[in-house]
Amino acid sequence: MNRFISLLAGTDLSQAIQNYEWIIPTIQSIHILAVSIVLSSVAMVVLRLMGKAGLRTSIADTVKRYVPWIWGAIVVLAITGTLLVIGEPKRELTNAAFQLKMVMVLVGVAIIAAFQISVGRHPEFWNKTPEHRAGLKLIAVGTLVLFIAIAVAGRWIAYMIVDYAAA
Questions:
Q1: 105 in a structural domain
Q2: What is the domain range of residue 32?
């Protein structure tokens, strides 16, 4: 891992990101805006599944409205996140909060993909009255909590102490 970090830190792109003071704050700002899009879109879908918002819209229509925003923001997050890793590879790759965040991101992406596929294939199932689906409500809230945990882990990266001499 140390060799990979050294190679990555020595690239021209990494050096440019490290040497221009405005690049990292700009990338982080875009990253945070994309996080807010994901969180708000997931929240809207969860609120619909809970029967608390958007009741005049089917769940399939709610998914068609919000899930593309989630995927678009995830693409932006992947790009900006990759740039942040390239710019500060030791800080990111050796950080337990970053590693935990990446595991949770993979789980979250899998949940969103499975949900989108299921709604597309079985819209009648998803449009049953919410009060008959307590297990699904629990999964929906759990998914929202997962995405909030991803955001918290992302913020925690800045506060984790990394022994750069060992990395």
A1: yes
A2: 2-159
Better pLDDT: 162 or 146: 146
**Radius of gyration (Cα) for the chain, nearest Å?**
19
Q: Is 95 exposed, middle or buried (0-12, 13-18, 19+ CB in 10 A)?
A: buried
Residue 164: inside a domain, yes or no? no
Residue 167 lies in a domain: no
CB 73 within 8 A of CB 38: yes
* For the ranges 76-85, 119-128, 135-144, the one whose mean pLDDT is highest: 76-85
Question: Within the chain, how many helices (H) and strands (E) appear?
Answer: 8, 0
Record the pTM: 0.86
Considering its fold, how many domains does the chain have in total?
Answer: 1
67-81: b (≥16 Cβ within 10 Å) or e: bebbeebbebbeebb
